[in-house]
Amino acid sequence: MVDSDGTLIGVLSERDISRGLGKHGQKVADMCIGDLMTGDVITCDLDRNASAALEIMLAHNIRHLLVLDDKG
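^ that's the sequence the OP posted. Answer follows.
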């Protein structure tokens, strides 16, 4: 999710929704994405190699890594 300036502000994953279900039950279906999403998103740039990306993922215990292209 990006704001009007194109700045990354968060990501919503199935894990975020599952955590929301555990905490809020059925009410999660009517909640705003901003209340469920992960706001402190770990990213890497497009020029990283796979080994460096894997190191980031392991260091932060994450299974998905958002890749940003700062050139565009």
